[in-house]
Design a protein that fits this description.
Blueprint (H helix, E strand, L loop, with lengths): L5 E5 L2 E4 L5 H12 L2 E3 L2 E3 L3 E4 L6 H11 L3 E5 L23 E5 L6 H15 L3 E4 L12 H13 L3 E6 L3 H9 L6 E2 L13 H10 L5 E3 L5 H10 L3 E4 L1 H4 L4 H21 L28
Helix pairs in contact: 2-9, 3-4, 5-6, 7-9
């Protein structure tokens, strides 16, 4: 988690304990002043992380802590409950200090996604769900029609729905209209690490959105997370780029810094783009030596 201590105010809500060094207090105050609001809750971190593809639970646990993430997604198909002494993925980290975000990975239709979301709520106790409806086994592109159908049903059943979606501005507006807590457009195909291939569409979605925009899938390095945060995205979700790094824990920390830098740059406001160079020092009043090739 964050370098400063964290405390729980209510289930799923994390606040920063500002006791500590001046730098820590300033960092905590800044996080609280610019909190991410999703589903009626607030979070200091704008980096969400996944739990798949890690070589073991120990590395996953350390990477989550290094990322500073407060929202962690897990496939309900990987949740194992039951046998005494059994250690499943939910036992691998302290979910009391995190907002668990079960996902419907592996579902190909709206009916399947709704069924798995109900199971996730029953097993985890949280109504939050990352909605994924992906019938395409090769490119893993989400089905826009079935995603919208599932979102309508799940919102109607009281779920807090965070839908993974193509970078389609029209679909984003439709998902907002049915009551989704966020929209989660892809930057490029899941797990590809190809970076921000949908920039133009992301810019439109961010411009028009009335709910948080979480860029999900395809980011490969922290600079790409910074890029979409500079565009005005509210958060990013990263899994493969961290889990498959040579040093997942260090990469998680790097993504944390990338997201923070991108958000800070967005709030600061970038300079305008000019067609020509503009000197940073004044040219008036500069003492110049005579040019020997120019007659006096």
């Amino acid at each position: 988690m964050n370098d400063v201590q964290t405390t729980m105010q209510e289930p799923g809500v994390i606040s920063l304990d500002t006791a500590g060094a001046p730098a820590e207090r300033a960092s905590a105050a800044g996080a609280l002043a610019d909190a991410l609001a999703v589903g009626g809750r607030t979070f200091g971190s704008r980096l969400m992380v996944g739990t798949g593809k890690y070589r073991d639970f120990g590395v996953m646990r350390e990477a989550i802590a290094a990322s500073g993430a407060e929202i962690v997604t897990v496939s309900i198909r990987r949740v194992e409950l039951g046998a005494a002494g059994h250690v499943g993925i939910l036992d691998a980290f302290d979910i009391s200090a995190l907002q668990l975000l079960p996902n419907t990975a592996g579902c190909r239709t709206a009916d399947e996604a709704v069924r798995v979301a109900r199971l996730a709520r029953a097993m985890s106790g949280t109504p939050w769900v990352k909605l994924e409806v992906i019938p395409d086994a090769k490119y893993l592109l989400p089905d826009p029609v079935e995603t919208l159908r599932a979102a309508e049903r799940l919102v109607g059943e009281g779920f807090t729905v965070l839908p993974y979606m193509p970078a389609d501005p029209v679909l984003a507006r439709r998902l907002e209209a049915v009551g989704c807590a966020t929209v989660m457009p892809l930057a490029s195909p899941i797990g590809s690490g190809r970076g921000v291939l949908t920039r133009a569409s992301l810019e439109i979605i961010i411009e028009q959105a009335t709910v948080p925009v979480v860029v999900d899938a395809g980011l490969g390095v922290p600079s790409e997370a910074a890029e979409v945060m500079e565009l005005g995205a509210d958060a990013v979700l990263v899994n493969t780029a961290i889990a498959e790094a040579r040093d997942p824990v260090r990469m998680a920390a790097a993504f944390r810094l990338g997201v923070e830098a991108g958000r800070t740059a967005y709030l600061a406001g970038r300079m305008g783009v000019r067609a020509h160079a503009s000197p940073s020092s004044p040219t008036a009043g500069v003492v110049r030596l005579p040019d020997p090739e120019v007659p006096a």
